[in-house]
Amino acid sequence: MFRLIATVCMAMLLGACARRAPTPSIALPSLQLAPAALGHELSVQQRLHFQFGRQQRDLDALLEVDAQEVRLAVQAMGQTGVRLQWDGQQLQEQRAAWLPPAVRSARVLDDLQFSLWPSDAVRAALPADWQLQDDGVTRRLSRGGQDWLVLTRVSPQRLQLDNRAEGYQLEIESLEPTPP
Known about the structure:
This is DUF3261 domain-containing protein. Pfam families: DUF3261. Keywords: Signal. InterPro entries: DUF3261 (IPR021675). By secondary structure, the protein is α+β, with helices and mostly antiparallel strands. Helix content is 19%, strand content 42%. Helix 1 runs antiparallel to helix 2. It is globular. It starts with a helix and ends in a 6-residue tail after the last strand.
């Protein structure tokens, strides 16, 4: 689940790298969940592989979550592209000048929370016409019988996010800490 957060960040960065992003076919709901709703602290380093059409990018991410705040930093080629901080009320970001405007911090946060936060917390934040199904392997966000956001837990270290509304896929691999 921790890898999903990195997936969200990667998706945003890759979307920004695409030359012309199509208009999303539907606006996904904003979750804006409290950091504490995750239910535990988290600190993980991840490798992200983002695909948007023919564009592909590899990124590194560092995600930290405690009861008060979500902190995310995403790097490409050794340079930090974006840093996000979410305290449950306000989303703050620091962006590199080279980061395309199409990379939206709010979408990254939503993808992260969709991927990692408990199903009940996500469900409670959804508008009435959206549904969440989660069988432990696949999590689906749907509206009108159509899946718009799908998360697949490939393994404990690998997650795949398919954002069908905005046309990108993100694979997140959590890296094991190296022994000293």
